[in-house]
Amino acid sequence: MKLYQVKCSPKSFEAILNNSKSYELRPTDFPYETGDHVRFMEWTGHVYTGREIEVKITFITRGNPLPERLCILGFKITLIKGLNKTAYFVV
Asked: Which of 3, 24, 25, 49 has the most CB within a 10 Å radius?
């Protein structure tokens, strides 16, 4: 299992936090695999807010119809940090 740290806009961060978004369209800048973890770090465009969500990748879509440089990551939340508490989830 690998852990990747990536920036996340406040809008996407809130959608993930509220469980209304369980996927992310990402550039294939890392060799993502099912079972790996991604830490989304909220980024305002100028600073990190300190809020983080860690997820476990449950599926990956690559290839047709997506360009080679993109993939879709499906995930489940495993950790939330920076909301005045830390919460862990069993996946």
From this structure: 24
* 3-class DSSP assignment, residue 10: helix
Phi-psi region of 86 (alpha: psi -120 to 50; beta: other; left: phi over 0): beta
Q: What confidence tens digit (pLDDT) does each residue in 26-63 have?
A: 999 999 999 999 999 999 999 999 999 999 999 999 99
Q: Which residues of 70-87 are buried (b: 16+ CB within 10 A; e: fewer)?
A: ebebebebbbbeeeeeee
- What sign for the dihedral angle of Cα 39, 24, 20, 10? positive
